[in-house]
Design a protein that fits this description.
- The protein has 18 helices and 14 strands.
- 49% of the residues lie in helices and 13% in strands.
Amino acid sequence: MTISGKEYIDRINQLKSEIWVDGKKITGKVSEHPAFHGVMKSKAQLLDMQNDPALKDIFTFTSPNREEKVSFSFHHPKTKEDLLFRKEATEKWARCNFGLLGRSPDYVNTGIMILAASEKLFGVKDQKFGDNIRNTYENAMKNDLTFTHTFINPQVNRSIAYFEDSQENIAARIIDENSDGIIIDGARLLATQGGITDEILVLPAGSNFNEKSYVYGFTVPSNTPGLKFICRESFTYDKSDFNHPLSSRFEEMDSIVVFDHVLIPWEKVFLYKDLDIARQFFAQAQFNTMLLYQAVIRMIVKTEFILGLAESIVEAINIREYQHIQDKVSEIIAALEIMKALHMSSRVQASLDSSGTMIPDARPLHVAIHYYPKVYPRLVEILQLLGGSGLILLPTEKSFESTIRPYLEKYLQGTNSSAEDRVMLFRLTWDLCMSAFGSRQTHYERFFFGDPVRLAMGLYNGYPKKEYTKAIEEFLNTVKD
């Protein structure tokens, strides 16, 4: 089935997960808390689209097991047409938030789908673990569950040789097990939207793969006893859509996930102390490839939004005639077309894997995630350069409601816009590239898929270069002759 936005909000409120903001535990409805109200409302609007009769063919498919309509985000692609179906639905959702929701429901749902497609890998030594991830997927699809995820350890010491030997558990690890399940103690980082999803997906972190107590994979409800979400400062400073048009709607919140002796039932565990599977599954299950397929669509939509902002500024203050302005906006156009081409290439060159999943070509997607973290800060800089001082002198909504409005209308008008329209445009741009929310967006894109240098190393080491060096060798042989 597909749930409505109201059902999503009611369900999260009823969980009463342990969420801490600014040193205070949320005791009332989380959907009414200023830090979460906007983003939960935005997510609810996405879920409502699945139930719109005019959009149902875009956002749902018929479940093969239950003959009922379920969310596209759980669709298991087996043809290139299936990949196109996922692309069009993801794109339509992303355009509702301009690509600013990095954790829209289809992101981790895609991960749950691809993990389930690799159930044989997880069950290779013990079938119950393969069954568990399959059952997790089926239950999530049946109930249209939402997920956040975490697979980063606390940054106590990032040196290459560091291995945690503290008497206290810092990085979350298995400390015990019993007939009911495994017990996890410690912390994980950066669960975006932590506490406002039905469940959390927990995967092995990139380090400590040689220590079995850190090797596990499971999902667990967000309100599981002992599970705590400790949030950073909220960037929703004002409910006014005029003053903060983006952060009031799309501020996702990030959190530390604390596992305080949390019991994870065996039926929720799909990876347990198996170093071989832990080292294989990211590549063999094509987990990262499918997540990138979704994420690059979001990045394309975000770049479209930036292009729209840039051209709107150009029109508002009539600066199109300057060559350097055209050059700057052309940089945005080039970035957009590069990302679109890379994503299309991944779909056109997709192929079936051993599980019968149509997997996009990973190479262009890896190029995209190498390129975008570098170009996104430049795109933001271009908006700042186009806006100039106009991004600093920005009266608030109440200023326009006061007796000084005539002055604002006179001195802040644009060539092709009223003062109020111009300020609204510039506040929108400011919220993307200069506010706390906007700064977080830039930092988020820089590190969205991990350390940029490691991503570059992965691209270099994984790219098939031999055919190109062979061509050089053959040419040099002709020179010798």
